Queue: 2 jobs
Job 1
Amino acid sequence: MSKIEEVKALVEAGKSKKIAAAVQEALDAGDKAQDILDAMVASMSVVGDKFSAGEIFVPEMLIAAKSMSKGVEVLKPVMAGDTSNSLGTCIMGTVAGDLHDIGKNLVVMMLESAGFDMIDLGVDVPAEKFVEAIKENKNVVLVACSGLLTTTMPALKEAVQTVKAAFPDMKVIVGGAPVTPEYAAEIGADGYAPDAGSAAVKAKELVA
Amino acid sequence: MLTPRQNLMETIKGGNPDRFVNQYEYLDIIMEASIMIGDMPMFPGNMGKDAWGVTWNWPEGQLGGFPMHDDEHKVLKDITEWKKYLKKPIIPTADEVWAPAIAHAKAVDRNEKFVTTFFAPGLFEMMHHLMGMEDALMNFYEEPEAMHELIDYIVDYELEFAKIVIDKIHPDALFHHDDWGSQISTFLAPKMFEEFFLPGYKKLYGFYKANGVELIVHHSDSFAATLVPYMIEMDMDIWQGVMNTNNIPELIAEYGGKISFMGGLHSGEIDFPEWTPEICAEYVEKACKTNGKKYYIPCLTSGLPMSSFPGVYEEVTRQIDKMSKELF
């Protein structure tokens, strides 16, 4: 197995304690940082697909994301200043009145692993805060809004519409247990994803 | 006419119930025996610590409280050091503490209803309350030995409580909470659930059953269809909170007679600010007609006999009575 394949396998298996050494070995063996990063992104894409298909569960996805993040730490000094691999910035938050963060955190990890620079606004985020965050951050290409409760679905609608009113061309993706593709379309969102794995796929599609 | 208790037994044994078991009617939950909640907030606008030191925040306008896991509040920051930070709460045994629970239990006609002890949170929930969901889920892989030790420690605590509550109120039923999944999936792979949680639950539910508790009702308002074989193995009689994402008719066809299913009425679809009696009627009719009369108990997925919005629980009860008249 080549060093880069080893890195790929370690991310997919979520071996966070071994990944840093493996990435370093790949660099030492002459593999390019960008190729190593691409391999890890590809691994996370496999992980996301397996999660969406119900073949793996949240723990497996978390340890894979943690491994990738540790691998990226090793690459960072080598790739400093190189932003060509970024898909752009994504602002994410759970909408006003909703304090659920597990699903949102998973999406943040998966989008980060897919190549987005993530700005996590946390939970109970008022609609205007999404707009402020777009203004305050560079290269924002996507806003992701999460809501778990039936009672906070109006807040999801408000968030999408407030963002669209201020930035009509901004892509917005929504998700959460009560959200359906029909509801997402009805409130003017550009995309919907039922889980964190497909959120990464849909997000890449929206900004392509 | 059968008593609620008799009707429940007919339903879960596949006998001849004379009506639908109506939500929680067969359980008389002795909430006075839930003496280990500490200062956990029971109403919005409050914050407090439970008996294990987990800080809970229930902000105004929310449907429930949330355990806090920022650096200041997380109880276990490093699972490998759990013994340093965690002490089992002491369970009081003094008569005066238990007097209200004992009086309530004595007042129940046990031919009518099951005297029921309530326990929450369960083993899985304790893990993420103490260390946060992400840490808990990763620790099953990264620190499995420490996780096993901690689960065993919490099982011991639950057994201590079980011994005392059995001695004090002689419950006929246990109503135990532990949410094992989201609406569409379990949190853990079934094999991981089997490794970490099946042994503890076998011990716990086995102990209750060996000491006079006839009925084990477990709440998990989630998908958990893939865990049903383990539920049966741990001697659970009724899975309360079962959501339609589990395909209840299929579960009944496969497992009816070994376990029964209570739920099918999603709180999120029925119990919300703009609820109407018509919405309740529509969902109740669908649930009763789809899931049938045996091994199924129509019930909101809520983990207690109540609704978040006034009147919903009672309206659902009325609609189930209506369906009983129509279908029995």
Job 2
Amino acid sequence: MRGLQFRLYRFKSIQFLIAASFTIMTVLVVFFVSLVLYNKFNRTAENNTSLGNQQVIYQVAANLEYYIRSMTTVFTSVEAQIKSSGALPNEMLNERLDTIFHTREDLVTIGLFTETGQRMTSLPSADMRSNTHLTSQNWFRSAIENPNHLSFSVPHVQNLFKGKYKWVVSMSKGIKLKTANGQEINAVLLVDANFKLIDDLSRSVKLGQKGYAYIIDDSAGNIIYHPQQQLIYAGLKYENVEQALKYTYGSYLDGSTGENRLITIQTVNNVGWKIVGVSYMDEIVTTRKEISTFLLWLLLFVMAFVLLITLYMSAKISQPIKRLEKSMQLVERGNFDIHIPIRRDDEVGRLSRRFNLMVNRIRELMNQNIHEQEAKRKSELEVLQSQIHPHFLYNTLNSVVRLAGTGKNEDVITMITSLSRFFRISLSKGEHFISVADELEHIRNYLIIQKMRYKNKFEYAIEADEEALRCRTLKLVLQPLVENAIYHGIEPSADEGFITISARVLEGKLCLQVKDDGLGISPDKLKDLLTDPPAQHEGGTGIGLRNVHERIRLNYGEEYGLQIESEREEGTTVSVWLPCLQEGGEI
Amino acid sequence: MRRYSIAGLLGLFGIFSLLVSCGRGGEIHSMPETQKEIVLIVKSKEGEFWNTVKMGAEAAATEFNVKLIFDGTTDEADVKSQIDLVNKYLAYGTNGLILAANDYTKLAPSVAKADRLGVPVVTIESEVNSPEVRSFIGIDNYEAGRQAALKMKELTDSKGRFIILNFVKGSRNAEQREKGIRDEWAATPGMQVVESAYCNSDSTRCGELTKELLDKHSDIDGILALNAAASIGAAEQLRSMQRDGEIKLVAFDNTPEELEWLQEGIIQATLIQNPFSMGYLGVKTAVEAMNRQSVPKKIDTGTKVIDAENMFWSDNQKMLFPFVQ
């Protein structure tokens, strides 16, 4: 419960609000900046890869084109040699062709065949193999079908001559030749170039770590060269050739093989081949991952940093407010003796100063109020005291009438004299303080009257120290006590009572005592007698005792007042404790 | 309060610039080379077949970004050397092992040891009798035997007497191939196996054995040579005896010599495997096993019957002549 309250308090604090909002704002800003940077980087990386690939592929295509042009030149010169020479077989032609054949080490075969596939001349001049299917080979067929047109075959294994099987690209053309007897016949000229050069060229293409390049035939979409040819034939790999065929050059993203790949295409002129570069997007993703982890760390770092800064700043801002709040809490609990030290001259400093002024003012007002209240109370009590029981006067006068009626003139005189003395001391020239001697005289007259009224139902004695007599006292403190003793102690009792009034100085204090041997007071009643609120005492106004008690305390302080001891059937002793102030002394 | 925010912003700016400069410094030595290593141990370091396997393995190594170490014995029958090789590479510490085992049972403890060390083992071409082998990649030798038998049946009109020229006695591949042949012919009474002999993968010995057998049995219609050495020995012998064409020869594998004789008509047909796929799939499967992915227990790379007719078909060319020369 406490923890929860504490937490709620924390969440509702200004410090939290400042820290949280500032942190969230900063983190959001950094996050968005990171996001924008990341996207920008991403796009740049992709563009760079695409551009790089295009350049590489363009370069390969240019090299290939150059190579093919040079091969075409070779082919043309071979053709020229054959055409310029006489009828076949021709020794000189063979020598010339041999020279050409040996200047280029990438030439595998130069061959001249009749329409029916008979060898007219060839280099190397080795024996031909059986089962060559020469006339059904692609290069032968295309030469027959399109005479006078130089056609390039796809790479294949040349199987014409004994010796090693070599991968070649065949250039072939259908030409017309004159034989020795002047007849014109159709022939096929074949020049085979070793495919190794093209293979090496393509194999050396590296696009990223895993990327590669392959070559397709523009017309049929056959794969001419692929570094993982076997995988494609074994069905372990798939290339989306149809898509690549649609482009002449350029690049696009392809996901048909399950992986995101960047495909770059460039067409090789003359032969109708296309070079297709493949690079894997996940390699870009690797660098992308690096960047994102970097940005994540940045974000975390900034968050921690901003949190620290804002915690510090918000604490700085909210601490004076918190101090102010604590001080206000103390005031709320009634402590007005507070002064907040003012540290800075900012809003909170000014607020603190105003608060200090306010608390001071409240303190002054409170003190003033207390004084006013006390004064008012005193005067009220005095008014009460001075309204000396009309009832008593009425009763006394009744008794006097009765005494006069029965002719007891002496008693009448005693009573009237006592009454007059009683009132003289009661008034005592408006003085609030009188000597103990006067107070005792006053009570004696009262007792005389009451004794006569109650027909000697009680006896009394008044004792006083010399020292006590010289002291001054608040007037009329004893009369209510004696009245109580008579009304509540003696009158209800069947026996004759005895009241002792004494005045002594004890331990530097004046002690006036009224002691009776009447009924006594019950313990539960006793403990309420001096305390508020005024309970309804049976048969009494209840004002008397408390009135005296309060008057003493208001005038002399908390340590003075009444003290009541009582026991049932034994009697009651009421002690009045007063400061012992000598005659002439003032409060 | 303004003082503080300005100070805070300044501090923030300072830290930012610090961070940026730090990041730039760090990027230089980023991209650490954490390539995993795979060892490929084959039966023979030389020879067309194993070189093609190596090519396939290298293609896969590039694609899956692993380091490939290629090694093997010089003699296909040298089991002890191969066990030593396996132990050597296990001692060096490798992440994966691809093995073309020289023996079906004797390599099993080596495989178990590798598995204990946490090195997944993938076998290619020849199986090893061990449950710890994650995957076998190769042809179904029984099925290959049946295909060879079927081709021979076609060549000889379902009738004749035949010799089976096998390679190593006790070799699982050899037994499976022969079993395939015999099972295929079981329902055809015309096809008779006169004798089956072993010439231990030595082409000279195979040639001699061919002569001995042909002298012993006069009326032989065909020979089934169940590996490259047997095929070369038999073909050479038939040519020198000038009985090529008369006695049909169905061979295995695609060495340059065999291809030449195939075109010349000494060999009527040959069964080729796909060694490139074996190498490629071997590495691919080993990488998957290393990454704790589940891998198939057996991958069949398939076989193909090649004869003089179809050997220069565009697709077959690339299978038969893997190297550009």
